[in-house]
User: Fold these one by one.
Assistant:
Number 1:
Amino acid sequence: MKKTILIIICSLSGFALQPTHGQTTKNIVFVVMDGLRWQEVFNGADTTIINNKTFVSNKEKCMKKYWNSDVAARRSMLMPFLWSTVKEKGQIYGNRTKNSFVNVKNPFWFSYPGYNELLSGYADKNINSNEFGPNPNETILEALNKTDEYKGKVAAFTSWDAFNDIINEKRSGVYVNAGFEKMPDGVAGTSTALLNKMQYHLPDIFDGVRLDGATFTMGFEYMKQNKPRCMFLVFDETDDFAHGGRYVDYLNSAKYGDEFVKELWDWCQATPEYKDKTTFIITCDHGRGVTTDGWKSHGTKHEHSDETWFAIIGPNTPAKGEITSGQFYNEQLAKSIANLLNFDFKANHPIAEGIEAVKAK
Ligand SMILES: [Zn+2]
């Protein structure tokens, strides 16, 4: 009798104390920093590039801002949020010097194929151009937006104007604000008109690509006003400054990207709709070359530019910090997002398996 009571008490208290292993992720914030190399993410600024006058005119200033002989200190100078909060509470994949490998699966190693892979979970060989036009593949954003639960609660703010096609805005109905696109009146609250106007008064240095500070601010204000359940943000300066051989600007933009993520994370953690029920995924669409000149570019002519990285932080993701084993692919992130939301992502194309380690059982 005593034993029975004890068993009942134990199982009752056990039940009550059991941490919830069910779904807690209700929202996704998915951030991509275009063409930001894993080399800088994990090792910080690279002296072989800093020492080259072609790429860095004021070496002393650059060293002061981004150099420390200790690699952990150095990478924290570049991406302080990633290497504090995300490292402590999340998972960071892709440090090849520690046997963690992430690659794109598509055979092209440039943007549209990379974003299609990330969003549709399918490294489609037919998507072979940045001017491909409307994406035939259904993305995780579109699939979510088709459901009653997420309809009208999926949004994308991107610096590059190709995303109206990549997300197939017309077919998917996902709200996409890409390139120098105006927001509809009032959609970002009282700041809407000001932000719409401001974007046209910034330098158009990348030919149709909006500067990231504008994309971020517009997206963030939209988020505050509309509380989307799935928010996709893409910053582009890292890629464009690298193509231009402007290494300090490339580093600065990586740092701004890290600051954007911090601001979004802090706001989410202070906002009831998002607090402790939002998972952040941060990644890139491709890597870059590694030779003296090669870091500027990417594509199959530039070895190693298929090498990528990603980071993840949220209520379902066990805190493992820097991952030190395994091979993963960008195409796995779409299904990983679906798994975190307990959403059954199906489309009329193959979808790569999600990554189990990002979600506790
Ligand atoms: Zn590029």
Number 2:
Amino acid sequence: MPGPVNTQAPVERFFLVFVNPDEADDHYVEQELEGLVEAAGGEVTGMSRQRLDRPHKATYIGSGKVEEVRLAAAETEADAVIVDAELTGIQLRNLEERLAIRVLDRTTLILDIFAGRAKTREGQLQVELAQYTYRLPRLMSVYTKFERQRGGIGMRGPGETKLESDRRMVNARISRLKEEIEEVKRHRHLQRAARKAHPVPTVSLVGYTSAGKSTLMNRLSGTDLLADAMPFATLDPTTRRVDATDGVSFFLTDTVGFIRNLPTQLVAAFRATLEEVTESDLLLHVIDVSHEEWEGQRDAVVETIEEIGGSDVPVLNVFNKIDALPSVDEATRLVTEWPNSVAVSALKGTGMADLVEMVRKQLEGRTGLVKALLPYDQNNLVESCHKFGRVLREEYREDGIYLEAELVPEWQAKLKPFLIAG
Ligand SMILES: Nc1nc2c(ncn2[C@@H]2O[C@H](COP(=O)(O)OP(=O)(O)OP(=O)(O)O)[C@@H](O)[C@H]2O)c(=O)[nH]1
Ligand SMILES: [Mg+2]
């Protein structure tokens, strides 16, 4: 009898090439890419670095470096080389030819991780759209012998070159994906419209990948979401209602983390998911202050928020992982220096009361106290206020139902015909 067959794919081995211009960031940049390789299920065999003022048009790295990488990759028995940059189709093809090995860039790696993480239909469609959009201008590298052939590509039309027919097919696929995303989005819009109709404000967690968003979400809303040191543990968004003890209620959304140089195709493809963020009443920007590069990470997140059109949403800076700081004074100093900030440890639960209090204050302007007298046939409205708002007083009087409630403006408007003074 033959032994059990090993069905697991062998771990892919990667040789890394860095072109980071600033020596001071080396450690961080390398660690980040290694983390991405691990998240994609790969292994690092070695690395090489080149300082470049300007990348070479043909091969990105210089020709001497290309030769050095070719030898090192072969010696370490790597399956592929990853360049920590966004490469053009020409650069990819030239590098694959000269290195005699498959070549990936950072964006392809990130897209690969996303493809592995997407669970919902919408997430999967968005990742696929990003992949095709990224691949389209780089299609020519399909013709080097190291590029894996993908399904669907390769049917030749009459009188067309293979490249032309491939482009046409990818374009058709992109259009179909966009249509499908529109369809799923319409459904999501209905869900969100239902949520928006509730007199409860919405809050979204944003931040660099691994900053602790899901850990904070679990802490605040009792969810059991995956929280992991691996980058991009979260891809699809989750929303839960949070009812804090001191009378503040809001919908909290956890979503995908950001990273520096986030591929624009990815940001564009994820527009539907990220709309949730831009339409929130408040953003909690979770920052891992125990990270040596937290200020750079913070800037990258602020940039991405701008890119998705969320600059107008108020932001509360949540300095997280203060348990991992060398001293508490550090946390105190940060909070005094930065306006609209609070220091917490999502892991240990430190600072949660302060955080909730800050959220309450920020949302205060969102809800207002209304007093209304509703006819008995408006019982549905009363029920909704109970279910989703904060009813402070309710009396069944002869002339109708008297209600005092805290509501967001949309709901204040619904009660408008029944408002009473005093
Ligand atoms: N020491 C410490 N570790 C924390 C804290 N909060 C989160 N972590 C850890 O940081 C890692 C990342 O946490 P996540 O909650 O998955 O981070 P995230 O922001 O959701 O990450 P992505 O979904 O990948 O974008 C996990 O290993 C957590 O246990 C904290 O307050 N202190
Ligand atoms: Mg997460």
